């Protein structure tokens, strides 16, 4: 009989009633302590009780035009800036960190790239600085590389590379699908194979599956341990969380077998893999994005929550971190964050959303406190 692993305990804190749907963790003010950024404000660590203004963020139709708060030193001055963008502004932007408390951050346009569902980041060329990958469902998939000077410092300028020829669709992620050591891009209707030179125009498209209104990100992970990369996918605007098993025939033909993880919830828009309990194996972390399409999605009025799943070779085991009505429980927003903020060795969870900004402090497995 398989030994049952101890549950992971979390302590929930509500940091703010602000209704921004993205967040990030980084050292904003250079004091060596991680801070939390979400929308128009940053929250000073280590207690996150002091809130500082960043810049005005446009409210529109129950949302805010900010679906990413990712840190990047864009102008090379040593201060981490913010990469942002969202649906209505149709523009990828960066906010300049002034390096001084109380001074508003200037916002600069990178590109009018189309409606942005959200943004993810990956160092596609191994340069040490991640490239920017917005999910723009109505536009071809593209990425943006920060142009750096001879000293390796950012110049405030970016180079755009378009890698698909048709609309990218809802959903995007990173996975080495074919095992060649190069990271490919997964979209909802297939995957883009990275060539030897990632900047060499359109990548080869493989229309091998249809994932629906997929999460951002779509996760690549070898669920079964057989050496093939599988996919983990949430339905961002419907019920369902699934994994797709990759199979290879002797002739090299690739097929995908769909498996259910959880059909009890809807609006699984953001997913993370992280080792929450320190056993060397990642857990899947996700939850409901509260009012993802305001009240227009299936399950929009259901309770909200955040969950972790032990993967167990494909026999996913669900555990509830938080669950209940909005205002009492937290969802996961469009871009939540997982990082150890308390220094105890266990990753914590920062959860933004229209239900407020929450911090779930990871106390580790239950048995650690029982002696």
TrEMBL record:
Keywords: Signal. Pfam families: FG-GAP_3. It comes from the Bacteria. InterPro entries: FG-GAP, Integrin_alpha_N. This is FG-GAP repeat domain-containing protein.
């Amino acid at each position: 009989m398989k030994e049952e692993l101890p549950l992971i305990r979390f302590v929930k804190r509500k940091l703010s009633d602000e209704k921004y749907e993205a967040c990030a963790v980084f050292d904003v003010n250079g004091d060596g302590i991680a801070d939390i950024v979400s929308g128009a404000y940053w929250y000073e660590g280590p207690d996150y009780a002091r809130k500082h203004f960043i810049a005005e963020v446009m409210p529109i139709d129950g949302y805010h035009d900010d679906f990413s708060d990712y840190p990047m030193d864009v102008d090379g001055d040593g201060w981490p800036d913010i990469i942002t963008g969202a649906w209505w502004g149709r523009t990828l932007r960066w906010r300049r960190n002034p390096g001084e408390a109380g001074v508003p951050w200037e916002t600069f346009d990178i590109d009018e790239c189309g409606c942005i569902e959200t943004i993810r980041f990956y160092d596609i060329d191994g340069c040490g600085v991640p490239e920017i990958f917005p999910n723009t469902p109505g536009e071809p998939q593209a990425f943006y590389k920060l142009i750096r000077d001879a000293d390796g410092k950012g110049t405030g300028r970016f180079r755009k590379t378009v890698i698909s020829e048709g609309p990218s669709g809802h959903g995007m992620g990173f996975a080495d699908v074919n095992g060649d050591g190069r990271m490919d891009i997964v979209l909802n209707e297939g995957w883009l194979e990275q060539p030897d030179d990632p900047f060499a125009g359109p990548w080869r498209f493989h229309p091998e599956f249809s994932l629906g209104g997929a999460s951002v990100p779509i996760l690549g992970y070898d669920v079964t341990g057989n050496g093939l990369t599988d996919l983990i996918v949430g339905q961002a605007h419907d019920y369902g969380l699934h994994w797709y098993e990759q199979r290879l025939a002797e002739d090299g033909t690739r097929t995908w077998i769909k498996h259910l993880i959880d059909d009890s919830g809807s609006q699984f828009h953001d997913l993370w893999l992280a080792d929450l309990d320190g056993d060397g194996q990642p857990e899947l972390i996700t939850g409901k994005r509260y009012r993802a399409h305001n009240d227009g999605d299936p399950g929009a009025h259901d309770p909200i929550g955040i969950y972790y799943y032990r993967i167990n070779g494909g026999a996913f085991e669900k555990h509830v971190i938080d669950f209940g009505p909005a205002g009492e429980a937290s969802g996961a927003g469009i871009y939540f964050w997982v990082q150890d903020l308390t220094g105890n060795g266990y990753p914590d969870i920062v959860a933004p959303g229209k239900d407020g900004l929450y911090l779930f402090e990871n106390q580790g497995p239950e048995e650690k406190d029982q002696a």
